[in-house]
Amino acid sequence: MNATKRCPHCQQWSTWHHQATDRCQHCQGLLDPAAHQRLLHQQVREEEESKKINITLIEIFPTDSAFTRFWKRIVQGFQLTFIAILSFVLWLIALLAG
Ligand SMILES: [Zn+2]
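# zinc ion complex -> structure
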């Protein structure tokens, strides 16, 4: 037995699977635009989260002076330490949530 929901666009009753992406059988409009909006926001948030972890290491060029290379190495060291800590924390969270 399928659930039905009244379409907010054409006011017809349509089959509803309780999904944010469900569309009206009659006009193809979203049955639950608010839930769909929430879903989109959630996806954007998740994308932003994954971007944060994606740290690009500073590049050292052969043309850099000895002084520049020295500082870039230090920055890289910090970046690598940060990534290591972050991966460990993420691993820990996954372990505790698991
Ligand atoms: Zn409709």
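# post-check
The first strand starts at residue 3 and ends at 6.
The mean pLDDT is 89.
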